[in-house]
Amino acid sequence: LDRDRQLFAYEILFPREADDEQPILQRVLSTITDGALTRLVRGNRAFLNLPAELLAEDLDVLLHQPRLGVLLQPQVATDAALMKSLQQMAQRGCQLMLDAADLDPNGSLAIEALLQIVQVVRLDASRLTPVALQQRSEYLNSRGIWVIAGEVNDHATYQRCLDLPLHAIEVGVEFLCAGE
């Protein structure tokens, strides 16, 4: 949810199936190409959470879908060929989000390389102290990177997040089912 409690984006998971990456990629590409994914998210933003092996494939089809992006795990930074491909995708306008969880954005050169190409970072509000979440949000915002608080599963955490410089708050099913 964004600051106005409106939908910010969907996260679309593509689970790994043993030795079955190519059929998954074909299904992903066909749902993007035929417009089914765009219809599914009804014009909203969506980030695809793909296994790293599929990220190395030709995902140029995403460049023609400005509302679709890719959610990246920190370990992709160790693959030089993949990073080059992701840099090209970012330069051509593909939305990239880093799932940083509780990693320190100043922690390594690999994370720094990812911060150079992503537009959005998701931090894990359940694993960071309120002070750490605020400091990291402020730091990332100062770099022009949008910040999402992820793993917000209770109202107390949600209320804390409302006071932070966040672009959106990712609420879990537990939060939605708990009521006000």
Question: Could you tell me the strand content as a percent range?
Answer: 15-25%
The average pLDDT score comes to: 80
Poorly predicted residue ranges: none
| Global morphology | globular
The structure class reads alpha/beta
Oligomeric state of the chains?
Answer: single chain
| SSE topology string | EHHEHEHEHEHEHEH
Strand line-up in the sheet with most strands? 1-2-3-4-5-6-7
Please write out the topology.
Elements: E1 9-13, H1 21-33, H2 36-40, E2 45-49, H3 52-55, E3 68-72, H4 80-91, E4 95-101, H5 109-115, E5 120-124, H6 130-142, E6 146-152, H7 155-162, E7 168-171, H8 173-178
Parallel strand pairs: 1-2, 2-3, 3-4, 4-5, 5-6, 6-7
Describe the structure.
By secondary structure, the protein is of the alpha/beta class. It has eight helices and seven strands; from the N terminus they run E-H-H-E-H-E-H-E-H-E-H-E-H-E-H. The chain has a seven-stranded parallel beta sheet. Strand 5, helix 6 (130-142) and strand 6 (146-152) form a beta-alpha-beta unit. The longest helix is centred in the N-terminal third of the chain and has 13 residues, at 21-33. The protein is globular. 29% of the residues are buried. The mean pLDDT is 80.
Give short descriptive properties of this protein.
about 180 residues, alpha/beta, 7-stranded parallel beta sheet, 8 helices, about 40% helix
Could you give a quick summary of the protein structure above?
The chain is of the alpha/beta class and 180 residues long. The protein has helices at residues 21-33, 36-40, 52-55, 80-91, 109-115, 130-142, 155-162, 173-178, and strands at 9-13, 45-49, 68-72, 95-101, 120-124, 146-152, 168-171.
